[in-house]
């Protein structure tokens, strides 16, 4: 993680960025509005200002009353290239204390669970319909049965045959037409430039985020995420996800999402995925968030939880502060968004980004 350069740039450069970030929005924001602006943000000192406000994705979360449900949203079974049957995978996550699970086989909709001998209601779990469209950039598809079949898969070995000749835009259009939600899986694996992601996020509202942490590939793609956020925020949030990408049992529990919900049901988790009112972790014993407080009048955002040793606050890809509370009215170098990382011996936990605006 980069630390913001402490040396101030020229006053002319600071004025240039201040003017640039005010362009292109009905509501003034303190951040970049596109690739050119964000490139300047990354190099120019930004002075602290006491009229900043944060858009809190956790506004609807009651941290005292809502139960927290652990979720894995990227899971493979023998229906594609996973080693284990759907029933065994479901049982394993149930034993591990997960309440939310999506079976996302490659180009196969492993649904409903009852066809594989498991009833989510009897298990006290929420089953999320999904699959992984794998013909271009791998894309997680949720809450719909959209699929493209052109090859078969063997456990562990992978796909046999040629992928369909289809673009990411065609896939995302198909998911949208099926009233589904979409997430980019393991972006670091594909090696696309950030503009590839920003153009698609700008075009497709149902494309809600990207996988920042992947347990199977041991990827933590926060640098890609930060670049995309810097280019798109504050107008267009991109939510982060963490998943096991389970193919064998050894992958279970490495990366996960946590949803604080008033009720364990499909409507609530879909709404939370769309709003970004969840957090995610890399490491089986990563810190747990117990509360997030945003006080826009006082200029304070604070986080608390269990199992953490250090909290870092990041804006435009740079660490701008360390500590459980951030005084964002008196902290320099705040750009298009801020987010927090809680680190401990058991792993790292990420918040979603808070869009940064200017009080009118």
Folded structure, characterized:
- With 360 residues, the chain is α+β, with helices and mostly antiparallel strands.
- The longest helix is centred in the middle third of the chain and has 11 residues.
- Helix 7 packs across helix 8.
- The chain folds into 2 domains: 100 residues, no CATH class; 223 residues, TIM Barrel (Alpha-Beta Barrel), CATH 3.20.20.
In short:
By secondary structure, this protein is of the alpha+beta class.
* Quaternary assembly: single chain
Shape: globular
Strand content: 25-35%
Low-confidence runs of at least 5 consecutive residues = 3-42
Helix content: 10-25%
CATH class of the largest domain reads: Alpha Beta
- Topology-level CATH name of the largest domain: TIM Barrel
Cα end-to-end separation = 33 Å
Structural class: alpha+beta
Number of strands: 23
CATH homology-level superfamily of the largest domain: Metal-dependent hydrolases
What's the CATH architecture name of the largest domain? Alpha-Beta Barrel
For the largest beta-sheet, the strand count, sense and barrel status come to: 12 strands, mixed
- Count structural domains: 2
Summed up, the helix count is 9
What value does the average pLDDT take? 90
Q: Over all CA atoms, what is the radius of gyration? A: 20 Å
């Amino acid at each position: 993680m980069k630390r913001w350069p402490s040396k101030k740039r020229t006053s002319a450069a600071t004025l240039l960025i201040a003017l640039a970030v005010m362009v292109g929005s009905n509501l003034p924001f303190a951040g970049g509005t596109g690739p050119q602006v964000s490139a300047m943000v990354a190099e120019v000192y930004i002075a602290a200002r006491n009229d900043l406000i944060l858009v809190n994705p956790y506004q609807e979360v009651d941290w005292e009353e809502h139960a927290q449900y652990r979720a894995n949203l990227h899971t493979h079974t023998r229906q594609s290239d996973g080693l284990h049957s759907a029933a065994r995978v479901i049982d394993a996550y149930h034993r591990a204390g997960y309440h939310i699970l999506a079976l996302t086989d490659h180009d196969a909709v492993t649904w409903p669970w009852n066809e594989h001998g498991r009833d989510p209601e009897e298990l006290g779990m929420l089953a999320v319909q999904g699959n992984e469209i794998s013909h271009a950039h791998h894309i997680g598809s949720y809450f719909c049965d959209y699929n493209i079949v052109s090859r078969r898969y063997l456990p562990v070995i992978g796909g046999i045959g040629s992928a369909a000749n289809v673009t990411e835009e065609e896939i995302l259009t198909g998911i949208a037409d099926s009233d589904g939600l979409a997430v980019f899986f393991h972006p670091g694996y594909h090696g696309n430039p950030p503009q590839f992601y920003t153009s698609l996020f700008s075009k497709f509202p149902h494309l809600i985020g990207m996988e920042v942490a992947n347990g199977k590939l041991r990827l933590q793609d926060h640098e890609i995420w930060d670049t995309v956020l810097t280019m798109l925020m504050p107008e267009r949030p991109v939510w982060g996800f963490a998943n096991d990408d389970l193919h064998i049992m050894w992958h279970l529990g490495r990366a996960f999402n946590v949803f604080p919900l008033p009720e364990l049901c499909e409507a609530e988790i879909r709404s939370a995925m769309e709003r970004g009112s969840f957090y995610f972790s890399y490491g089986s014993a990563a810190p747990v968030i117990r509360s997030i407080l945003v006080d826009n009048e006082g200029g304070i955002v604070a986080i608390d939880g269990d199992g953490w040793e250090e909290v870092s606050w990041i804006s435009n890809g740079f660490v701008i502060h360390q500590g459980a509370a951030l005084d964002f009215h008196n902290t320099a170098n705040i750009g298009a968004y801020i987010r927090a990382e809680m680190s401990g011996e058991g792993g790292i936990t990420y918040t979603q980004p808070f869009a940064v605006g200017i009080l009118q």
